[in-house]
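Input.
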Amino acid sequence: MKKILLLVLVLLCALTRGQAKPFPKGTKRVLFLGNSITYAGTYVAVVEAYLLTHYPKQHYEFINVGLPSETVSGLSEPNHADGRFPRPDLHERLSRVLAQTKPDVVFACYGMNDGISMPLAEERFRPYREGMKWLHTELEKAGAKRIIFLTPPVHDHPKLGTQGYNRTLDAYSTWLLAQRDSLRWEVADIHFPMTRYLEEKRQTDSTFKLARDGVHPGELGHWLMAKPVLLYLGENVESAQSVAEALADRPQGEAIFTLVARRQNVMKNAWLRATGHKRPEMAPGVPMAEARQTYDEIEGQIRALLKQRKTP
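Output.
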C-alpha cells in the first residue's frame, strides 16, 4: 500500500510540475516600476512574452509604469536635463499608481539614477536605502502578494568602463541583495551578471558595448536583464543567449513577442497619462479607454497565435 501511495504522489508531482505557475494563485496584475530603462520596456516585454507562451492558460496583465529620470531617493543634480526639470521622485506618484493599477505582483528596478552618476557617498546612499525601504512598506500596505526588487543594470563609463560609476551601483546592489537575509526581501540580481558579461566580452573586444551611452542597454542588454528575472522565477533559460533562443521552442514565439512589445508601447504611455507624473517631455499617451481597446484587440491576436502549432 505504501508503495502504491508513493507512486501516486510521484505521478501527482510530475503532473503539477508541468502546470506550475510563476506567480501566486489569484494573480491578475503584474506591475513594473523603474526609470527610463524600465520605461524602454524591452525586458518587460520579454518576461511577459516568455510567460505567455509557457503558461498560456494564465491571463496576467503586465503593467509598465517606468518613468525616465526617476529616483526612489528623491535626489536630483542641480543641472539635470540642462536645467529644464529636476528628476521626478517616485514618492510623488506611487499612491496614484497603486490605487489605479491594484497590482498583485510588483517588480521594482531603481538605483541607476539614485547615485546621481557620482562616487559612492553616504549623503546619496542613505536616501536610496530609505527610499527602497519606504517602497517595500508601501507595496505591502497596498496588498501586493509578491514584491521583487531588481538590482540596477550595469553602468559603462566611456573611459573607466565598469570601474567608474558602476562601483557605486556595485554597492547599491550589494546592499539590496543583503536584504534577502536581513529583511527577507525578494531580490533578483541583474547587476552583477550584466557586469560579468560586459567585462568578459571586453577581454576579447575592447570596443564591445551593451549600451551606446553606457546607461541605456540595447536589445542584448535587455535580454541580460530579463534572463535573471526569469531564472529567479524558476524558468529554464540558463542556456538561452537571446530572446529568440528563449522562445525558439514555442509555437509563434517570435510573433507573440512582437505583439506584446507593440501593446506595451501603447499601454505604458496610457498608464503614465492616467496615473499622472511631473516629468515633462514625455509622449502624451492615449486615453485609457482607447488604450484598452488596443489591448483587447492585440490580446485576441495573441490568443489566436497561442492556439496554433509551431510551423515547420
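The longest helix spans residues 253-275.
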